[in-house]
Amino acid sequence: MSSDIAQHLAEIAAEMASRSDRGQVAGYIPELAAADPGQFGISVLLADGSQHSVGDSAVPFSIQSISKVFGLAIALGRLGDQLWTRVRREPSGLAFNSILQLESEGGIPRNPFINAGAIVTTDAALGRRPPREYLAELLTFIRTAAGDEDIHIAKSVARSETLTGHRNFALAHFLASQGNLTNPPDHVLGAYFHQCAIAMTVEQLARSGRFLAGLQHLIAPERVRRINALMLTCGHYDGSGEFAFRVGLPGKSGVGGGILAIAPGRASIAVWSPGLNAQGNSQLGTEALEMLARRTGWSIFG
Question: For this structure, is 134 an active site residue?
């Protein structure tokens, strides 16, 4: 299997290098707008513990919304099923930062991976603690999952998001107006922006997904199943159905160009290419995962 994976990855990387249409980088966050769309990296951690990587696999990038997976794990650990009284578990069908849907549904976000849902989830994970205590817990969790202490928050990215995150401020204040935040919006967003600014390489990210693949025990198996289910149905926003159709694996994307995908019991996979498609998901990352799933037969749908 290891030699096959190495060959698959080399062929996929060569194919991605030939692509002229690489999507558009996230221009609305200045720090992300400077990313080179020519970069591509992919890493696969197998059940036997071996890891295979090609391309720009050692280059740190902003994981952005992939961090919501880890934040959700912490929030479920603190609140359990009480979290679902504040956020639903259904696909949104709209853009990840939609205000319209939040207003029409009375301030209860559709799922924990759209921005409004992640803000509520961050608020739940915060409890009554200062944001720095939650962020320390989150970093400890991710470092433990990855087996790597060299994972940090890119402060320049957090600052860039804070200065330009007007829509997220609007979402947070609307949530507060509906009684769905327990902390001041500024505190919640301070934690949220710094969470999204965590920087990792695809090698670190693939290792951090081991617990979701059942290759490492960090949280209860029941919660692993629930998080994977939400990743499959909601992890790519209004492109989630297309991703499930094409790739057939639970996955969570971020506008930094990363995707974490899980082949339960088999592998944790991370891919990164900064150019995004129309739904805000990595264009080449999605194509690479589709190729990998087809070659390995890892789709959960057989």
Answer: no
Catalytic residue (one of 65, 160, 253, 282): 65
Q: Is the pLDDT of residue 302 over 90?
A: no
Q: How much is the pTM?
A: 0.96
Top-confidence residue, 214 or 1: 214
Q: Do domains 2-64+199-296 and 67-198 have the same CATH topology?
A: yes
| Domain range summary for the chain, segments of one domain joined by + | 2-64+199-296, 67-198
Instruction: Note if 68 is an active site residue.
Output: yes
CATH of the domain spanning 67-198: 3.40.710.10
* 192 classed as catalytic: yes
Q: Which of 25, 188, 224, 255 is catalytic?
A: 255
Query: Which of the residues 57, 98, 237, 252 is marked catalytic?
Result: 237
**What does the pLDDT look like over 181-233, one tens digit per residue?**
999 999 999 999 999 999 999 999 999 999 999 999 999 999 999 999 999 99
Structure confidence at residue 76 (pLDDT): 96
Which letter, b or e, does each residue of 105-118 get, where b requires 16 or more Cβ atoms within 10 Å of its Cβ? eebbbbbbbbbbbb
- At the fourth CATH level, the homologous superfamily of domain 2-64+199-296 is DD-peptidase/beta-lactamase superfamily (3.40.710.10)
* Model confidence pLDDT, tens digit, residues 141-170: 999 999 999 999 999 999 999 999 999 999
Let me know if 255 is a catalytic residue: yes
Q: What percent of the chain has pLDDT over 90?
A: 88
Q: Which of 205, 183, 179 is nearest to 61 (CA)?
A: 205
Is 65 an annotated catalytic residue? yes
